[in-house]
Structures are given as C-alpha cells and as structure tokens.
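User: Here's a structure from my thesis project, written as structure tokens. My advisor, Dr. K., wants to see whether a designed sequence matches the one we expressed. Can you design one independently, without my sequence as a hint?
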C-alpha cells in the first residue's frame, strides 16, 4: 500500500485521442480509428493521450509554494506508439523523463475506460514510490527529501529507484 501516492492524487485528463485509444483493441485498430478521425496527426510530433496532473512534494523545503518537486505521468502518442511516461520536476520547473514504456497491444486492449487508465497510472506510480522507499530506506518524508535532492542535483540512482517497476523502461527504444 502506498504512503504518499494515492488514487485521489492521480488525475487522468482525457483528450480526443483517449477516446480512440479506449475503443481500440490493439495498435492496428487504434491507427485505423485514428486515420478515420478528424484529428490531425503527424508521426514526428508527440501528442497527449491521457496526461495527468502534478503530484507535488517537499513543500516544506521551499518557501514559495510554486517551487517544489513534482512527479507527473500519463499516456502519450509518440512515433505511432502509445507510451506511458513518468516525469520528475525540479523546484525551478525543469522536467525530465525518467521512465518510458511502450504499451503492447494487450495493454491497449485492457484500457476500456478512463478509470482503467487511472488505475494503470496509479499502479505504476505506486511501484515508483516503492522504489523510492527501498532506495532511500527512510520514512516517507525523508525518502522524498533525498529523492528531491537527487532531482535538484540531477544525480539519481535511477536503476535502484526504478527497480520495482513491473513493466520495462524502454526509453532508449524511441531514441
């Protein structure tokens, strides 16, 4: 069970692409539906399918509420693939992708409602939280402080933090 990230903190903002994704059974079905839609699509661009809001933390370390560490996630359409991304954000608003997973056809088939997507996002953010807790091996607040310091210094033990993920980090596959 999570100590920091809960379902109430996960937002799933549906776009027109989300509607197509939720009706699709696999990639060929998705691309066929996309081609018949009124959505302009360029394979070179990245599109939000179901972006989430920010999950802010380390408020107590910064005087200004606009400056703190954050995590965000979501599903995106990149180079004809649906990807699940996890971003981390510095207190200065710089964002970095630390995890990217290309969904498989069977994963697409399981997403039939926005609640299914929200559950998918929650499940994998929960795994990220478990990785943070195991890596820093402190209480939640101290672990998040250390994680935040790593974000700020751009020195994170990502292999350890991402070690609890049940899906592969195939960030390199899109480069």
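Assistant: Designed independently from the structure alone:
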């Amino acid at each position: 069970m999570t100590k920091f990230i809960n379902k109430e903190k996960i937002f799933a903002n549906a776009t027109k692409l989300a509607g197509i994704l939720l009706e699709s059974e696999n990639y060929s079905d998705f691309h066929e539906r996309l081609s018949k839609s009124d959505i302009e699509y360029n394979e070179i661009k990245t599109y939000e399918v179901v972006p989430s809001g920010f999950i802010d933390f380390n408020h107590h370390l910064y005087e200004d509420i606009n400056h703190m560490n954050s995590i965000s996630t979501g599903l995106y359409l990149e180079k004809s693939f649906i990807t699940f991304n996890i971003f981390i954000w510095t207190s200065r608003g710089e964002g970095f992708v630390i995890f990217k997973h290309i969904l498989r056809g069977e994963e697409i088939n399981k997403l039939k409602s926005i609640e299914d997507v929200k559950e998918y996002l929650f499940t994998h953010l929960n795994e990220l939280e478990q990785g943070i807790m195991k890596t820093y091996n402190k209480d939640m607040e101290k672990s998040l402080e250390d994680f935040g310091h790593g974000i700020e210094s751009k020195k994170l033990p990502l292999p350890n933090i991402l070690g609890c993920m049940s899906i592969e980090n195939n960030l390199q596959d899109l480069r």
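When you compare it with your expressed construct, this may help: The mean pLDDT is 91.
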